[in-house]
From TrEMBL:
Cofactor(s) required, per the database record: Mn(2+)
Keyword hit for Iron-sulfur: no
One MF annotation (Gene Ontology) recorded for this entry: phosphoglycerate mutase activity
Cofactor: binding comment: Binds 2 manganese ions per subunit.
Name by which UniProt lists this protein: 2,3-bisphosphoglycerate-independent phosphoglycerate mutase
Function per UniProt: Catalyzes the interconversion of 2-phosphoglycerate and 3-phosphoglycerate.
Assigned protein family: Belongs to the BPG-independent phosphoglycerate mutase family.
Involved pathway(s): Carbohydrate degradation; glycolysis; pyruvate from D-glyceraldehyde 3-phosphate: step 3/5
């Protein structure tokens, strides 16, 4: 039983939980959700848009957790990295960037080789093939030799697009550019400290360790034949690639999102790296990337796109008003309720407390669709019982992380799990006299099949997401809007004006 007496506001983010009329392949519809059903029947609710221009993305570009949490916290539209980079390519600013040209010139002068790494899909969540191709073309003109380290996707796009992705890339390969390695993002883009995965990616890129294929297309075909989808392709090497040649070599990293870039980049660029053994110590001494992936990279990483300052976001404004806030998620979504919600800042504001619950150590979350939701919920309730916080922000990762596995049966369990957690939270809030705003950052698990097939749909959607106000206030309704309206809505619930920088509007209607 929750014992807190202070009136608190809970912002509950059901990650990857969308709404869709079609029932087939819809884990949200097929799951047993008595608590969500009750909330939708009896409490003010509406829907939110989480994609496209309303969250700083190109028209009809699906939203994602980074963009979603940035806009939840910012309360205004922030131009996302995908269109920023696209614009720089169109204008010629990217290929004429001084930091990029300097590292290419220096590498060639010292007799080194240029290495380019990144995703080859057009998913647009962590990277995009056109960015890699653009950098590849300018590097080929300024370098003696260019080695490509390609990450196949299968998560933010359909599960087996890499064959066509690679064919398209090969058709544009300059003569001095070689495909050196290929691997699924499961290995090269881990963010959950599964260092055994990162080590395999590192060994391929740094030392040329992996199964050797003569033909990159055959490597993909063989993996698909064995039932291995793009995300899970084991690192392979090509063309007698032997790894980093020496300190003269340099790295260009094409992905534009930080959370799934940090581990592999620490392994490839950090002389003090200790998360696994690097017997010969091979690493890149010079590197350039799209963004500031980690504050620790400043001494060794040039940045092509400086961070956009987001002043007076939700966390900062709540702190400036003297209120106390609590952030909690399990490992998979912890950066989202902290770093991304705070506008891409690691800074912990005065009065802000954080809690991270470890995600389960399984190969895929279809093996444990409950993930760590119960521990997250229990810790949230404990925080409420402390009677210390005005605003508590919680993310439940299950609908998104299990949705990405493509398993409909597991996604149903994931939805049922978060439904049970919502029941516990609402019961606690009844005791507190507090309120909750229940939302999602984007859709996913409401569409687990592609079209009329039973082929797994593993990526985000363009469907609306719920916005539910759990409250005992009378004569209040909530209008539809987008994610930029969440911060102003929370501030109104807290009895605070929004800062002038927030262009979103409160969704509360009295």
């Amino acid at each position: 039983m929750c014992k807190a007496k202070k009136k608190s506001i809970v912002l509950c983010i059901l990650d990857g939980f969308g709404l869709r009329e079609k029932k087939r392949g819809n884990a949200v519809f097929l799951a047993s959700t008595p608590n969500i059903d009750r909330l939708l029947r009896n409490y003010p609710n509406s829907t939110l848009t989480t994609f496209g221009k309303e969250v700083g993305l190109p028209e009809n570009q699906m939203g994602n957790s980074e963009v979603g949490h940035m806009h939840i916290g910012a309360g205004r539209i922030i131009q996302s990295m995908l269109p920023r980079i696209d614009d720089a390519i169109s204008s010629g600013a990217l290929i004429n960037n001084d930091d990029l040209l300097e590292i290419l010139s220096d590498t060639k002068l010292r007799g080194g080789e240029t290495h380019i790494a990144g995703l080859i899909s057009d998913g647009g969540v962590h990277g995009h093939s056109r960015h890699l191709k653009s950098l590849m073309k300018v590097a080929s003109k300024k370098s003696s030799k260019v080695n490509l380290h390609l990450f196949s996707d299968g998560r933010d796009v359909e599960t087996k697009t890499s064959l066509n992705d690679l064919k398209n890339l090969i058709s544009e390969l300059p003569s001095n550019v070689t495909i050196a390695t290929l691997m699924g993002r499961y290995y090269s883009m881990d963010r959950d400290k599964r260092w055994d995965r990162t080590q395999k990616a590192y060994e391929a890129i740094a030392n040329g360790v992996g199964k050797n294929y003569g033909d990159p297309l055959k490597a993909i075909k063989d993996s698909h034949y064995k039932g291995v989808t793009d995300e899970f392709i084991e690192p392979v090497i090509f063309s007698q690639y032997n790894g980093i040649k020496g300190i003269e070599d340099s790295l260009i990293f094409c992905n534009f999102r930080a959370d799934r870039a940090r581990q592999i980049l620490h392994a490839l660029t950090d002389k003090n790296f200790k998360s696994f053994s690097r017997p010969n110590g091979k690493m890149f001494n010079k590197a350039v990337g799209m963004i500031e992936y980690d504050i620790d990279f400043k001494q060794k990483f040039n940045v092509l796109f400086e961070k956009q300052e987001i002043k007076n976001g939700l966390g900062e404004w709540v702190s400036r008003k003297g209120l106390k806030q609590f952030r909690i998620a399990e490992t998979e979504k912890y950066p989202h309720v902290t770093y991304f919600l705070n506008g891409g800042s690691e800074y912990e504001y005065e009065g802000e407390e954080r809690s991270m619950v470890p995600s389960p150590q399984v190969n895929g979350y279809e093996q444990k669709p409950q993930m760590s939701a119960e521990e997250v919920c229990n810790n949230l309730i404990s925080a409420l019982e402390r009677n210390s916080f005005d605003l508590l922000i919680v993310n439940f990762a299950n609908p998104d992380m299990v949705g990405h596995t493509g398993s409909l049966s597991a996604a149903r369990v994931a939805v049922e799990t978060v439904d049970k957690m919502l029941g516990k939270i609402c019961a606690c809030l009844d005791s507190v006299g507090g309120e909750a705003l229940i939302i999602s950052d984007h859709g996913n698990c409401e569409q687990m099949y592609i079209g009329n097939t039973e082929n797994p749909h593993t990526y985000h959607t363009l469907n609306p997401v719920p916005c539910i106000l759990y409250t005992d206030r009378e004569k209040v309704s909530i209008s539809s809007g987008s994610l930029i309206d969440i911060a102003p809505t929370i501030l109104e619930l807290l009895g605070k004006d929004k800062p002038k920088q927030m262009t979103g509007k409160s969704l509360l209607q009295w």
